Structure formats: structure tokens, C-alpha cells
Amino acid sequence: MISIKDIARIVGVSPATISRVVNNKQYVRPEVRQQVLAVVKATGYVPNKAARSMVLKRTFTVGIVIPDTFNMFQRQLFSIIEHSLEEHGYHTLFFFVKWDAKSELRSLRAIKAEKLDGLILIHEVNQSEFYDYLTEGSIPVVLCTFDRGLPNLCSVHIDEEAAAQRATEHLIALGHRDIGLITGMHFSFGAQRAKGYRAALSAAGIALDERRVVFVPSYNADEGKAGMRVLLSRGLPLSAVFAATDELAIGAVRALYEVGLAVPRDMSIVGFDDIDITANLAPGLSTIRQPIREMGARAAQLMSELIAGNPVARGSTVFGFELVARESSAPAPFAD
Amino acid sequence: MISIKDIARIVGVSPATISRVVNNKQYVRPEVRQQVLAVVKATGYVPNKAARSMVLKRTFTVGIVIPDTFNMFQRQLFSIIEHSLEEHGYHTLFFFVKWDAKSELRSLRAIKAEKLDGLILIHEVNQSEFYDYLTEGSIPVVLCTFDRGLPNLCSVHIDEEAAAQRATEHLIALGHRDIGLITGMHFSFGAQRAKGYRAALSAAGIALDERRVVFVPSYNADEGKAGMRVLLSRGLPLSAVFAATDELAIGAVRALYEVGLAVPRDMSIVGFDDIDITANLAPGLSTIRQPIREMGARAAQLMSELIAGNPVARGSTVFGFELVARESSAPAPFAD
DNA sequence: GTGAAAGCGCTAACAC
DNA sequence: GTGTTAGCGCTTTCAC
Fold first, then answer.
1. pTM of the complete model
2. Which of A83, A115, A222 sits opposite B280 (nearest CB)?
3. Which of B3, B127, B276, B281 is the best substitution to test chain A (most A C-beta atoms within 10 A)?
């Protein structure tokens, strides 16, 4: 591999001069600069990042911790963050972590070894050892789409509970009273969205029946299908279901389809997240839109400020959400 | 940041000994080894990867080049590759590249700077400068889901044309004669799948009408919707459409829904890839299944062999495919 | 078994 | 303006 010394030898100057040119520093005669640039181009020389980061003690790389089985919302989000970070001059290194202690600790080790400039979490880890590392201040940290009440960390998210309440209220406003909930275990948003659902029913004076609530292990379409089957099997009146993610909603619609029920004719469905695909389903899925672009861009920007050492307000940045009513939710039968 | 010297000082031995322990080398007294391990654990010491890779001239990192706007198939694929690579002891660094020369060249620079142990491409780049780098042999390379007839590179893919032909034949076997095609520009698979479609029609003695073929700029649902609208606007008889990806198919179904047409009652649709979501749509999408797990695992395994310097057969590894018939394709009206 | 020393590729003082 | 030097954190001979 061609190194800075090789270039120096070819041009007939010292490595220091090459370094100055490559890093756009002053104090190089224009002619020399041109010569160096020419040789760099001809040889395809690119400075070794490892060597560079060793002396600079900066890696220009920020880590992104995401769930091993990231869903479409998270996929969109991390694409956005990656792009924003790139605009701020940072590379991105992904750490896929599973929902178990071993995986978290292994990732933590890897993260430490990389000597990253910063870390963005899209995945809620659980190990206290992990949080100790995050809060000890050795690295700038931004939590994205959740917070944990850690006051000295920056986080970017929406009001999950209020949003879920809004989704449920939408169904109530359409005249539905027998409203089910499919949500997931793990990750605090699953419980927060359940809380919003309960709050909406309660505010509308609808008695909460826990048999209309299903917690599934994960947030994908397969689980949504399974969850809807459980709901149907309980035999209670049910005219609408709020699913805690769009993917759960998609699976729920599928379960209905398999038993010959149509959406929204026989059942209204509302999802959550407004992932790309929802608008293109048939019927289009009513859902809660998170301002994903703005959230991702803000996370990247906060990170960049944090790394630069600029003063940044710690704590939560709470974004607004929006109900997007599409075809999957319709007035309840016999609604007055 | 705590370094090997710190550990050495604490334990009261030399850095060399610490290195031996950390890397599981021989020639360390058991007692000393235990002591070192204890201090490593207590301090949370993790060797600096940059320093390590500088002396070893290995980074234990393989790059994955993926399209900036990766689709769900590619998302599944790179998750699989990432996991497999991890099992082989490698980290993964992603390079998102756009379909333009500037982006490709920028990524190429970044790739060179990282001094990666290997590179897997899920994205077909175009710049000859990029291919020069890939073929010059300075780094192990595996192409995944495509090949470019570069005999000295390893590639893993299916027979795109045969698979597309199979998809089209499925529609023909259901009695369809007026079959449209929606496919994309860029990436050779778009053209290969179009070729398979044409071959199937031709083999069945169905005259090819180019007005039933639409090339859209990209492979997502929005484009599928746009493509279907174009097809409908041309006013030709049409009872079935083959979409070159599942996402295109999803958009096509949506376009039909918006004008009050139902699948498969009014139109049969076949997609391609068998992404996760297709089985959970309503109706489920008939499609071509690529053996994505096997392909991803093989790509990772080839890479690992290549890095180890083991002899590996260069050229293409061609995997089989499978037609998955679900509800979106049904017999043609008036089929005999 | 263990330590001292060299060196990986680069940047940043500090001379000149 | 430019070169010399030291050193980032690590591994690896080579003495001992």
C-alpha cells in the first residue's frame, strides 16, 4: 500500500509537506502544492485512516446502535441519519444489537475498541453497564426515538403516549367503541403506546377490557398477524384495532384477509410510524406520522455540535406528530 | 483513554505481556495471566483498533457497498451478510452509494482510506475507476446479486433472466395473454428481468407489444404505482402484469386500487424477490423467491476464504430460484 | 517467561 | 516554506 513517504520520495520533499498539502494547510509553495497534488492523483494515494486517527485522536466516525431486526421505520431513520452525518463530515459505523445482554455487551466492547467520535442509539439497550458507559461522558451520545430520563444525554423523540392516544381518538371519533390494541414487548414505546390507547378509551368513557389488548414479542407483520388472530379468537365484539406499528398493522390486515374479513368494511385499522410503504398499500393505512426526516437530521446535528464541543441543551427534544387518515379507518357500523 | 501501558503499569509487567494475554498468546505464567485479565476486566480496557490494525496491517473489517436507496430485498440481504460476517470474525462498514459518478468516486476514496480486509458489493457501480480498483487484486471482492462478467471476481447471484421468464410463464399458464411489464432503469437486473419476460412471451407465441412495457427510474412502490398508471393510460387490453420487484408490484396494486380495480379479480400481478412483507399483504403477492439467506451466507463465506488466502473458485456462483404462487395471480378471465 | 526496542503511517511542534 | 523529530497504541522480534 502506498504511503505518505512514497509520495514524499516521488515528489522529492518531506512527508510533512505532503501532509500539509493533503490536509489543505498553509505554508506550501504553490508549485510544490500542484506537484504533490498531481502525484497524489496519479498514484491514487489516500491517507491511512487508522494512522491518522491515532495521532489526531479522532476517528471522524460515529457509531449507530440499531436493533438487529430493525423495522422499516428504523431503516428509514438510519438512512437519514447516515446521510446527515455524512454532510457533517462523519462516517458511520453500525452496531446491530439483539435484545439480550450478551449481544449488548459484545457491541459495547466493539464500540469502545473503535474509539468513536460519537454514538447515536436508535435501539434501547438495557444493560446498566452500557448506560454507565453512555453517561460517564467519555463520548457524545444522542438517543433517537426514545429517552430514558437520563438528564445529561441528548434525546430526540415524539410524545409516544400522546400520539397513540391521538390514533385511538381517531377511531373513537369514527364511532368505534370496541377497539382492540396490538402492541409489542421490549422497547419502552410499546408500553407507552399502550398507555396512550388506554388514556383515549378512558377519556371517552369507554370501559377498558384487557381481553382486547394483545402484547406480541416483536413489532413485525408476522406478529401483527398472530396478534390479530388472538384478538379474533377471543370472540369479543371488535370493530377497530390500533396496532402499535405499521408493520403490526399490515399483519393484522392480513389475518383478517385470511378469514375473509375486509378492511375497512369489517374492521378499521390504524397503525403507527407512517413508514414508506403505508401510503401504497391497498387500502392505504391510517397511521401516526413521525417527522422522521427532521428527527434524523436533528440527531445528526446535535451529534455534530456535541463533537465540536459547542454548548448544547441536554435532555429531550420532543417533535410533533400527525395523524394521517387513509382508507383503512372508516366510520363504525351503526355509528350515530 | 486507558491504554496497554496503563494496564502494564498497574499489573507491574511490560506492555508486551499484556499484549500476549489479550491476544491469547503463549508464554505467560498462569498467575500473571489471571492478574492481567482481572485488571483488564476491572478497567474495561479494550485494545485500540486503529493502533492494532496499523501494526497488523489488517482491519478485520469488510466493507459493504449498497445503494443509497436500498430496497427491502437489499436490506434483508445486508442484514444477513452482516450477521454471517460477524460469525466469521469481521466487522462491517457500510458505504451507501448513489447512482452517479461523484458518489461512486467519493465512496471509492473512503473505501481506500479504510484499508479494508475485503469488500462486498450489493450495488452495481459503474465507474471504470471503481472496477479498476476491484480487479487490480489489492483487496478481496465479492459481488452479490449480480456479476459483470469479470472472471477474476467472485460473484453470487441467481439466473435473473430465467427467473423472470418463469414468473411470466406462470401468468401465461394461468391463461393470460395480455401481460404487461414494469421494470426499472439502472442495475443490470432490470434489463435482465425484462429479457426473461420477453423470452417467455416469445416462447409462448405471444406477440410482444412494447406498449405493454414500462421502464421506470427506480424500483420502489411509488414508481410501481406510476408505472401501472402509464400502462393503464395506454388503453390496451391487459389482464396481468409482471413487476420486476415486489416493491414495484405493491405500487402497481395500489394504482389499480385507486381506480377501483381489484387484484386478482381484475388484474393478476407477479412480483420478484419475495421480500418479507409480500406474504403478509392482502392479497399475498405471487413472486419469485431468491434464496437470500443462502446467498448472503455464501457471500460472507467466500469473503472469509478469500481473506484467509484459501483457494476459492473465481467467477459466478449461481443459485436456484423458486416461483411462489400466492393470491395476486389467478386464472385469466375467459381462460380456456 | 518476560522486557526493551523498533516500527506501522501519520501529524504537529519545533528547528532552520 | 520546509525538514526533522517525536509520538499516537499496539505487536513482534530478539535478547535475556
1. 0.93
2. A222
3. B281
